[in-house]
Amino acid sequence: MAALIELKDVTKEFNGQVVLRGIDLTIEQNEFVTLLGPSGCGKTTTLRIIGGFVEPSQGEVLFDGKNILSTPAHKRPTNTVFQRYALFPHLDVFENVAFGLRVKNDSLSTLTKIRIAQEEYQDKIKGLTDKSEIKELKKELK
Asked: Is the per-residue pLDDT at 3 higher than 80?
């Protein structure tokens, strides 16, 4: 499977302080990735670089094999759901995520596919009764 998002040797410095050093990251189509770490380790900076809100000091950011460093944030094929402030409290998780797709005029079929997948996995999670079924679901998600 080809990489959808790829960071190659990404480094970021703020005022001479290195906050990311030589980060390599590959995210494939339909892969679910979580960045975990203590406060200040570079999780948000990495996401801001992918989203185009911060430029790396060096390295490449590729989307579907194409370098997107010169693409402004609002034209990148990515969306950001912020931890605070940018969520609409009256909308559920799907509607908050779908908001960005609607603004970018993504097709209704994309939104429909996301909603159907969300409902299918919610149904599967509700039906899980033991750990072996959870392991099986994890295999399906890969």
From this structure: yes
Strand partners of residue 17: 14
In the listed set 78, 105, 124, which residue is the last one of a domain according to the structure? 78
> CA-CA distance, 51 to 47, in Å (whole number)?
6
Query: Closest Cα partner for 45 from 84, 82, 75, 12?
Result: 12
Residue tagged 């480094």 (tokens): 11
Query: Under 8 Å CB-to-CB from 44, ≥6 apart: which residues?
Result: none
Range of the domain at 109: 81-142
Put simply, whether the predicted model's pTM sits higher than 0.85 gets the answer no
67-125 confidence digits (pLDDT tens): 999 999 988 888 776 666 567 778 877 777 777 777 666 666 676 777 777 777 777 77
Neighbouring C-beta atoms of residue 52, cutoff 10 Å: 19
Number of domains the chain contains? 2
Find out whether 6 and 50 touch, Cβ atoms under 8 Å. no
Determine contact, residues 37/1, Cβ cutoff 8 Å: no
